[in-house]
Structure formats: structure tokens, C-alpha cells
Amino acid sequence: MRHQRLRATAPxxxxxxxxxxxxxxxxxxAEIVGNISQSSYTSYLQDYLYAHNGDNRGNGPQHDLxxxxxxxxxxxxxxxxxxxxxxxxxxxxxxxxxxLQGTTRPNEYLVLxxxxxxxxxxxxxxxxxxxxxxLEAARVLSQYTFERTxxxxxxxxxxxxxxxxxxxVNDHSTWDIRGMxxxxxxxxxxxxxxxxxxxxxxxxxxxxxxxxxxxAVSTYGAINCTVLGQLDASDHxxx
Length: 239
Description:
Blueprint: H1 13-22, H2 29-34, H3 38-48, H4 62-76, E1 80-88, E2 91-100, E3 105-115, H5 124-141, E4 148-155, H6 163-171, E5 176-182, E6 197-200, H7 207-221, E7 224-227
Parallel strand pairs: 3-4, 3-5, 6-7
Antiparallel strand pairs: 1-2, 2-4
Helix pairs in contact: 1-7, 3-5
């Protein structure tokens, strides 16, 4: 969708939120952040998510190729990886789900998601940028253990009205989901902006989460952060 829930130019803010909210057993937040690799993030976007001119992750052949690459990366990180199926307009689509099992509170869940589909164009920003962020977060956080279970989700058919995320939420309505962050168009800065900027939107009930995320960004991210009002035009809305 055209609205941004969170936008930045490096995969920092979401790692910080998950690290502080999940309470890593041994490492500090600074240590986790130190493992972020800009080159790794860029490689996901440029080499594996088919975000170049001529590519099409909407209804073109690159859609399934990108999905398969996401699945392979989740598996390589050691995550419990599944394809969650749903039907839209008579066609079966798949969300890619990677799960990092929690230790002492495994039945409490934190979700970090992004939609990997696009409209019929390359979709480097909308939303290859967010999907690459989820992949980099999964790579880094999978090296640690956390009290709660972390779910990394690559949702499909967001552009058609949040179909994939809505289907996943409906199928997991009994799960104790403690928070969800959606990365949408995080490679975009407002015209004329001289600084990396994170804009945080959320549902009205998510004010504590927005405050926690903003604090983490300000403390560790070196990114200008603005918390705005309610906006339901991305995959956080069904949660």
C-alpha cells in the first residue's frame, strides 16, 4: 500500500524493538545491533527479491521466485519454517513464516512482518525494502535465544487488501500475540529530508508499543523518529 508504517534506511529499528521486548538471555542490545550488516541487507534486496526493472512480484514469474528465496533463507537461519496457505479469488497463495522458539515463555509471540508482493512493477521500496529488513532481522536474531517466540512473516497479497496477513491472523486467533511490527516501505524518505527518518504508525490500541519502539530507535538507532496517529493501511492492521 502507499502509506508507510515505519520507514528508515537501515535495518535497525525493528531489531532494537524485538531485542528489548523479547529480553535476550545473554547479549546486550548493543551487541545485537553490532551484528547488523548493511551489505547483507542490500544483497537480499538486490540479489534475491527481484526488485529490478523488468521484474514483477505482483503477478509475474518473480513473485514465486522471491517467495522461494525467502523460504530458503528462513530455513538456512535455522527457523521453523512453514508456508501458510490461503485462497484469494480462487487462487492459493502462501505466506512464508519463520519461527524462533522462545525459551521460558514460548507461547507468547512477537511478530515481525512485511509483505513481499508488489503491484505490477519491481517494488524495490514497496515492499522489497521491508522484506529485506525482515530477512536481516531473522539472520541476526536467530543467533540468540529469547524468552518469547519470535515470528518472522513474509505476507502475500497485501496490495489487494491485506489478504495474507488477515488470513494468518484469522487462522491463529487463539495465539497469545504480544506485539507486531510491520515493515512497509522502509527505504523511503520524504522529499527534501536530510536525515534518515522513521515514521511509526499504529492502531489506537498500540500506543505502548509505539512508545517502546520509538524509545529504542532514539537510543540505539541514530535515526530521527516521529510517532504519528492511527493508520490501518498495512499488515499490522489485522493484528
